[in-house]
Amino acid sequence: MPSFPSPFGSDDSDLFDGYDEFVSDHVPRPGEFLEAHDLLTGADHVAFHRLTRDCFEERKVYDMTFNYNLARLNLDTRHTGAGYRYAVEREDADDAVECADTDDAVDSEEIDRVLRAEFTPTTPFCPQTHTLTIGSFRAWNGLTERHEYDLVRVRAAPMHHQSEAINEQLADLEETYLETGDVTADPEGGSEIGSNPMERSMENEGPSRGSTDAPF
Question: pTM of the entire structure?
Fold first, then answer.
């Protein structure tokens, strides 16, 4: 009887591109957050994404649906439009530095080299997008000694139905980090994002069976 690949963390290498490969048809299309900036492609994308794998492994940024390091989503041929794209921020771009309430960028004179990272989830209603983008921000900016950037800005792609609210919190987290150097701040109202009313009701009732450990 033929076997069927499991969507939950299969080790079948035929389902994944390699970390040393840049397959343009298997990575997300860059959105507005990356427009007008220097998009990473080819070897540049590969190099930063391999570093991302190591940062995410250390900080345990895992996709809990597929039970693997979030960096692996970029390589999953079953979800070729999902994962991260990156661009080096250009100071001369029209939208490079805007007010925090635009959800685009937080201004700071103390940062020089900035990378932008835009996350595209597998579906517009992915309930993990909020926690995964915040976990990514904390991993990259909590391990700045691993890379050449003073700041990695993170935003969710607009295809997600809660991208506006998520990106407002990411901008707030970014501003707090730039002011204090603390990546562990808990964005206000974060528990309301990524959950439906029934899930929020269950949270208000108290803990239930199962682990309460966060993936980062």
Answer: 0.79
